[in-house]
Amino acid sequence: MTGLFLVSLGLLIYVYAGYPLLLWTFVRLRGARPLRKGDDLPRVSLVISAYNEADVIQSKIENALALDYPAALLQIAVISDASTDATDAIVRRFAPRVELLRQSERRGKTAGLNRFVPTLTGDVVVFSDANAIYQPDAIRKLVRNFKDSDVGCVTGEARYTKGDQSVAGIGERVYWDYEIWIKRLETGVGSMVGGDGAIYAIRRGLWRSLPEHAINDFLNPLQIVAAGFRGVYEPEAVCYEETAGGTRREWRRRIRIVSRSWQAVFLAPATLNPARVGLFAFCLLSHKVLRWFSGLFIAAAAVASIALVMRMPAIGPEGLAAVALIAAALFAFIPQVRRSGGFILYFTVINAASLVGLYRGTFGSVSGVWTTPREEPISAGRMLRPGLMVLAMACGAILYGTLRLVMGGVAAAPVVFWSAMSVLVYVYAGYPILLWLLAKLARRPVAAAGVEPRVCLLIAANNEESVIEDKVRNSLALDYPSDRLEILVASDGSHDKTNDIVRSFASRGVRLLAFPERRGKISAINEGMREIDAEVVVLSDANTFLRKDAIRALAGNFADAAVGAVSGDVVLTGDRAALAGSEDLYYRYERALQRLESEIGSLVGVDGALYAIRRELFVAPPADTILDDMAIPMAILRAGRRVVFEPSALAVEMGSSSSSEEFSRKSRVVAGAVQFLGRPDSGLRADDIQSIFSLVSHKALRWLSPAFAIMAFIASVMLAPTSAFFAAVLAVQLLVIAGGLVGCIPAVRRLTVVALAHYFCLVQAAAAVGFVRGLSGRQAVAWRRFSRVKVQTT
Fold it and tell me: How far is it, in rounded angstroms, from Cα 706 to Cα 715?
């Protein structure tokens, strides 16, 4: 552990202090590399990338028009990435002096540059963001560096305004001042690493088309250096912009930047070859690549230091906990300490986010589409994010338990075993018992009545030709007044006969919204909602078939003004000998929990195959949301309404026909839920104690149960040789695992005991995989379709 601590600490010191010191020494001994500057004024194209920038675009354009650069030599162009607000209209007001270059569909900043940069008229292209305000002489100061024929790229100085006094804002400004110092030193050595999207310029002839997911202000300068030109820093070309505006926003921004920059390094491999680019390869490795891995070095040093401290006789785990509580109190209650911690928090956030960015850049999908910090939602006041807090605390408990096992061995194993087992027993037995008791003591009945509000049945579909005709006929046969029931099918990029089949029912009032590209279920729902003016919207899947009175049963609950959403009861059917018994048992258990949660207050999620909401309470989730059946009802809970369960609103659906299908579904659900809990809109009202209690117990802890089960198993392995009791416990665990593995054979799985063991292991494994996918962002938004079969309803 001592060696790990020293190596990790040494790497951190090198990255943040040793590397700048080496640069400074090199420049002092050899002198800065000469840079010729001149007063030539080439033709310049100022390119402003924008997406929904209505709040700032007018100020940006007015700033651009006021620049101290000849108007005849300055082309100003705004590339709008299919903005949906007033951005384009504002830009058009400045025509013809300012050109609007609009992408008809949103494809990201780099896609827009690929399309429009070759059409620009300037010899030099200056790239800028919509919120970056230039000093009057900024462009003059940038272009004077192109007098040197070796210079291909020039980056200006982006300064952060002082208005944001958040912890992240203070930390970001301090960190950025440090970055500016390094840029100056790198320019003295030869070339600085990367550019700054707010203010950098290139010779237009050096632009090369980039992959759409690439980050242009990093990959483009790398390509220019690889082509034999310098990338230099111009400290007198100044612009001003605000900080990201909060730790959460900076976290997301840093992940996006690092994931795309990491991929950019592999798209320009010559920049890591000293034979091609000289000392620049050393700068790229030290300044960026090792910096991105700093989070790993910090984590390793922290683990090693904790292990070393725990070995000290005077300070054990309890001492560490006391120190942690004192430190937390200082930062929470003493303003001076809290303010001084701004840089520490920012440093921690960016390094942790860098690790996530590296993971996503290596294994996950990276999008070129961005959302401005000005557009991102912020959680409302008096909101808590209990799911995220519990996930964080539980992960900390798991890490602590693992350390105790590693360092304490058999002596620590009993505490770890009983702690992990306590969580598991509470999740699967204690919580249901508590619900049952609460339902006996404090029921909240729904004042349902025979009301008939105007209803729209919204069906999201993708390539559903095998079932869509039966689904539409099933919908038309529902026992609900036809003049108060609308049927709308949102076809998400279907390319089979789905759309034609739906159109054949147009004469019977069935509407079709056909989208040319597949974007995912949530996008289909969001678009469909814009077309609906009914009081109640019932959402249902294409392969879910409703009993005749299902909508009537759902609608009756809306007679109670406190109810905002209602979940139906979807019964699994079909020939499912592989999983039928165990799957049905699991879903009966889940329905029992939902029924009890509804009786005492609200569910925190609904069944995506059949649920209804008040249209006025719908809040469109972000387009990359995976679970509509969690995001939509959570917004209704935040609005102060109940989400209830209606067992008489029945529908039938074909159950999973294979273990792989059930595994895929379960892992997707957990991944989507973890993704959602990491967002600002996952909060719940602080006074909604029951929903917080249910979210923590029914969802968050359940998703972490595989980790607790693994800890209990490891502890059992360690304790089995010392105790007959733990030997028996281990034997039971091994039998369950063996049953899970043997159950992969369909013929053997027909045995009830094996089927139960197999299904339990399958659900646990799926939860573990889904948790990792949710954290890494690797779960696709578009849902995976399995074979669809019509089922009979009565």
Answer: 14
